[in-house]
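Exam revision sheet. Question 4 asks you to relate a sequence to its structure. Input first:
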Amino acid sequence: MAHLMYLLRTAAEAPPWTFVNLLWFAVAPTAMMKRASYCSVVSTAVSFEVANLLDGTVHRRLWEKQNISCGAFYTFNVLVHWVPALLLHVSSRSSLAEEVEAKAFGFACHVGWGLAVTKGTMDLSSVYVEMEMWQWWVLWGVTFATTMAVP
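Answer key, structure tokens:
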């Protein structure tokens, strides 16, 4: 029980984007905002995996930080990243301009969260695990590219 309370407290203090974004998706009042959130869901899932390609210890360090098993970590990863990407699909907007607007809005919200939780540095080491700043910039680039490429 103490471990669960620790996880909830740390998530409340600096919530991972996935949790913020899934809540946003649930309450989004417009189709454009749902599409923006969905594109961010997909880009977050991709970036989470790319992080482990940049540094092969990232996922292990995350499950150690959370004091959970490898199996629990990957089960949770699938449930919070990949299941929403598959089940929450929101179709493209009707025009290119509307689609670009939704994707830009989704990325802007993600960046806004990043600025807020890092106090402007965009270094998410305190939210996830320690990585070099160049790796965070690569991941922000992956997030942008993936957000824009979501079909």
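Marking note for examiners. The CA atoms of residues 40 and 106 lie 6 Å apart.
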